[in-house]
Design brief:
Elements lengths: L2 H11 L14 E5 L1 E2 L14 E5 H16 L1 H5 L5 H12 L2 H5 L6 E2 L1
Antiparallel strand pairs: 1-3, 2-4
Amino acid sequence: MDWKQRISQVLSRDDYECQICGSDSADLIVHHKYFKKDKEPWVDYSDEELITLCTECCAFEEKCRAARENGIKELLNSGFTEAEILHKIDWLKNTDAAKQINSSNDILI
């Protein structure tokens, strides 16, 4: 399966909706919940490791990654409201990806 087919498969599985906010906008992307060192982006990831997000929620995810790397101050200064941050952090805490991350070389995004 090539990367275009893989993206289509994940979008279809997620009913063409952002899995955080429920948006069904045209600006949906397939996002890696975390990256595995030395793995191919579309070949070496299971369905559970890929998720459909809108561009806004994807941007939030990227800010969360930066916050984990650079401290929570980065997230608070990113332009998201407190309510958005709390909702999305709550969602992140309850994902299977967050529960499965171990101390290996995987990086949660």
